[in-house]
Amino acid sequence: MHAFTPKNLAPLIIFAAALAWCWPRLRPVPQATFATISPTTTPLGEAPHAELLPHAGPTAHAVTLASRADGKLMAAWFAGSREGASDVAIFSSVYDRGAWSAPQVIVDRRRAQHDTHRLIRKLGNAVLWRDAHNVLHLWFVSVSYGGWSGSAINHMQSSDDGRHWSPATRIVTSPFWNLATLVRNPPVALADGGVALSAYHEFLTKRPEWLRFDRNLRLLDQARIPDSAGTLQPAAAPLDQHRALALLRDSTPLHRLRAAYSNDAGGRWQPPIVTSIPNPDSAIALHRLADGTLLLACNPLEAHRNTLALLRSRDEGRTWSAPMIVEQGAPDDEFSYPALLQDSTGVVHLAYTWKRQTIKHVALSPAQIEALP
Amino acid sequence: MIAAQVLIVAWLLNWLGLRSRLVAVLLALLALVPVHGGVSMAMALRGLWGDPSVTTLQLLVLALVGKAPPELRDGWRAPALITLLAAALYASALGPWNFDLYRLGYQPAALVAILGAIALLAWWRGQTLYLWLLAIDLLAWRTGWLESTNLWDALLDPLLAFALLALALRNAYRAHRSRAVLPA
Q: CA A141, CA A201: separation in Å to the nearest integer?
């Protein structure tokens, strides 16, 4: 046993003092609730119509949509010589009076490298989102070494509708060299001012992750969907203040979307159930419409990404309508990685990868959406 | 925390045979100099393994001033125990299982209770250095200056785990060999 001398007591006292100082951060955080769900406040454009966005590079992929505080629709996606190339950057474009602006670089590899003080070899998926204080957030994937399973998530934000962006910061989500967390789908606002971001893991095994941040974007918690190995890119929608549905892309030979529910705003999830909707290991988009129904954009096939369709659920994702085909092409065409947004007039904006060449925007009128059974 | 990579490089230089620790640190400072496309060696290393844990930083400093804890430097039980803990953490974090030890590090009351027990045991055994190490880990985590908000990342990292695994194997082999040559 140690003698009770001042010299020997000092480390014990320091340790006890450290414990006392840490106490506020040790207690469990209150259970999350979702913020009141409201559509975007302004009309974002006329419908129906469709157009291709201006080319930002030889290839383009993985678009994400957000409404700006000034009422304009903003898209962001990655483009460059090819997916995974070092010249790939995250571009944005703004839809104004029926036309998309020339793409502007939000962040490229060199800026991400400079901001995060580490080597970065390539950029990938981005997620754009506007919070209740009209701050635009951009989460994006970067890789320093290896393939996408070496990914990590970064975050930037803009308080002036995307004209200027804060330096990128790194989010640590894994204890093993922070390997393999990616994002694809937009987050959900929490009532406490925080945000829940659906992410996914790709190193050794694929599975969804649910990241909860506080109002200062400090990562508070990280939840798994049980028994979900082999699925990825969760697309989540709140059903009310407490319940949420996440639809999961399927990388298994089953080729069927999975559906997982949470009753405590993502703190715990039920094991996913297999839906009847085919999925060719391809990204999806899920959006809760103003009337409370759910809209899903996906490739409803077991193979190929040459057909993009919309489906609607009026019973919180338990059953889905027949697909309404938005675009269909030859087997080697690709119409994939959709993003969805609804404005205050009920117009639904759908954007997606068009043949890997550029991004396409389709605006659907409320009548077209209502036609979905 | 880019400067943390300098400590790793200095320790590597020392380990590779550069006797003077001061020279090793001074040489390691060159790792901050951009060499290609604005990327320094420190940035390349940080891209590879991120920031080391606060425990690793403290042990690197202790090693560079010649005060590495003898239980870790020469023993095999403590390195083996920490390596096993790290292996469990990484297996649960990366595997397909539903339980994730890493999640315990966000609101880490349970984890800190275990650390408190370890600290008391170390104090009881007169190994007060471990109390200092753990206290500094906790203080660094609480300041919020670290890139990670998870306490596990202040306590452990894969580099430390690999280094301790190597030490455990080396020291266990040495202990076994010294027992074998003892006269009956």
A: 12
Q: Which CA distances in Å does A104 have to A56, A79, A329, A360, B172?
A: 8, 11, 29, 17, 59
- If we measure between CA atoms, which residue out of B42, B88, B109 comes closest to residue A175? B88
Here the tokens at position A151 are 């990914």
pTM listed for this prediction:
0.94
pLDDT digits (tens, 9 = 90+) for B64-111: 998 888 888 888 999 999 999 999 999 999 988 899 999 999 999 999
Give me the total of CB pairs closer than 8 Å, taking one residue from chain A and one from chain B.
151
Q: Do B112 and A22 lie within an 8 Å CB cutoff? A: yes
B109–A28: do the CB atoms touch at under 8 Å? Answer: yes
Nearest to A107 by CA among A47, A15, A170, A58: A170
Tens digits of per-residue pLDDT, B132-182? 999 999 999 999 999 999 999 999 999 999 999 999 999 999 988 888 776
Q: Distance (Å, rounded) from C-alpha A37 to C-alpha A57?
A: 36
Range of the domain at A94: 35-370
Give, in degrees to the nearest 5, the angle at Cα A175 between A170 and A176. Answer: 100
Shared-domain flag, residues B93 and B164: yes
pLDDT value for A271: 97
Residues of B in contact with A144 (CB under 8 A): 47-48
Q: Is the dihedral of CA A313, A319, A321, A322 positive or negative?
A: positive
Q: For residues B89 and A264, what is the distance between their CA atoms, to the nearest angstrom?
A: 26
Chain A interface, mutation test: which of B82, B92, B123, B124, most A Cβ atoms within 10 Å? B123
Q: CB A11 to CB B138 under 8 A?
A: no
Tally of structural domains, chain B: 2
Give residue B13's domain range.
Answer: 1-50
| A341: nearest Cα among A290, A282, A277 | A290
When the pLDDT of each residue in chain A is averaged and rounded to a whole number, the result is 94
Query: Which has the closest alpha carbon to A360: A75, A128, A141, A139?
Result: A75
Which of A29, A121, A227 is closest, CB to CB, to B107? A29
Sign of the C-alpha dihedral computed for residues A352, A353, A355 and A360 taken in this order: positive
**Taking CB atoms and an 8 Å limit, are B43 and A113 in contact across chains?**
yes
- Are B67 and B11 in a shared domain? no
Q: Are residues B42 and B110 in the same domain?
A: no
B100: which chain A residues are within 8 Å (Cβ-Cβ)?
222, 224
Report yes or no: A290 at the B interface, CB cutoff 8 Å: no
Say yes or no: B5 and B68 in one domain: no
The pLDDT of A78-97, averaged and rounded, is 95
SS (HEC) of A223-259: EECCCCCCEEEEEEEECCCCCEEEEEEECCCCCEEEE
Q: CA–CA distance from B17 to each of B23, B24, B165 (Å)? A: 12, 10, 21
Quick check: A22 and B93 CB within 8 A? no
Instruction: Inspect the interface and report whether the beta carbons of B152 and A177 lie closer than 8 Å.
Output: no
